[in-house]
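testing teh design pipeline on a random one, pls ignore if ur not involved
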């Protein structure tokens, strides 16, 4: 039985990336994007679909880069669609990427954003296949950090929040946790500004904690269409007691918190498949 393993990180492997050529110029950019997404998303969840016009020295038209989370989905999509009349009855050339650059590979350990985590989990497990709960959410600003300082146009404030989230997969009997801390310095011009910043920071720390929880999850796709959920054995996985202790003090190390996902920018690809 074929098995594929997905984790909640930016996909960078070349066997997960598909190129599409010979897209005729009879459609607009948006139409090409919409139709390609409709075709290729049927094979599995897509991380990125980018449509670009051909280079000036090439015939008019478009090419596309499609990144799947799964190498198996990308391979199936390539085999089924290569040479088929997908758009306006035009046969398209579809090939797997054979190129990996240092720039592209730099995102190997980049966690998915909060929105991407939800998208992938919902696609593979369904909206009822997982749940998240807040264990702890508290302000960690100490008295010295929270002291007001005069600033041009208002008062300079600094606030910090910590959060612990619980992520559960009831149908699989799997539970994990994630912790995060965020802080922000800003010029406060009134109580409404402070309230807005607090609400924004609380939402941000919840999202970061959930991303941290998802980073320890593996989705195992079986050839029969079923999905299993397993946890990675990582050294930075926090136990409940440890995390409770961490969030009870203001000296929670910011270096332990996951950074924001920086979307891996696609450079100008040399569209020559070896």
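output:
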């Amino acid at each position: 039985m074929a098995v594929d393993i997905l984790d909640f990180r930016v996909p960078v492997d070349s066997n997960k990336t598909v190129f599409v050529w010979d897209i005729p110029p009879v459609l607009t950019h948006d139409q090409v994007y919409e139709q390609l997404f409709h075709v290729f998303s049927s094979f599995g969840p897509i991380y990125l679909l980018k449509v670009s016009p051909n280079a000036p020295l090439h015939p008019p038209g478009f090419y596309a880069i499609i990144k799947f989370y799964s190498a198996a989905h990308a391979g199936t999509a390539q085999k089924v669609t290569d040479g088929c009349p997908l758009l306006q009855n035009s046969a398209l050339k579809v090939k797997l990427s054979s190129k990996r650059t240092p720039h592209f590979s730099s995102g190997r350990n980049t966690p998915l954003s909060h929105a991407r985590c939800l998208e992938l989990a919902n696609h593979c497990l369904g909206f009822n296949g997982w749940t998240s709960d807040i264990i702890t959410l508290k302000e960690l600003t100490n008295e010295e950090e929270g002291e007001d300082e005069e600033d041009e146009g208002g008062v300079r404030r600094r606030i910090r929040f910590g959060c612990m989230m619980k992520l559960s997969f009831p149908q699989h009997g799997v539970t994990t946790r994630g912790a995060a801390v965020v802080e922000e310095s800003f010029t406060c011009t009134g109580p409404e500004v402070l309230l807005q910043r607090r609400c924004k920071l609380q939402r941000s720390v919840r999202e970061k904690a959930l991303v941290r929880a998802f980073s320890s999850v593996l989705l195992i796709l079986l050839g029969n269409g079923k999905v299993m959920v397993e946890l990675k054995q990582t050294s930075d996985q926090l136990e409940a007691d440890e995390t409770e202790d961490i969030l009870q003090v203001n000296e929670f190390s910011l270096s332990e918190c996951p950074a924001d996902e920086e979307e891996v920018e696609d450079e100008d690809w040399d569209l020559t498949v070896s």
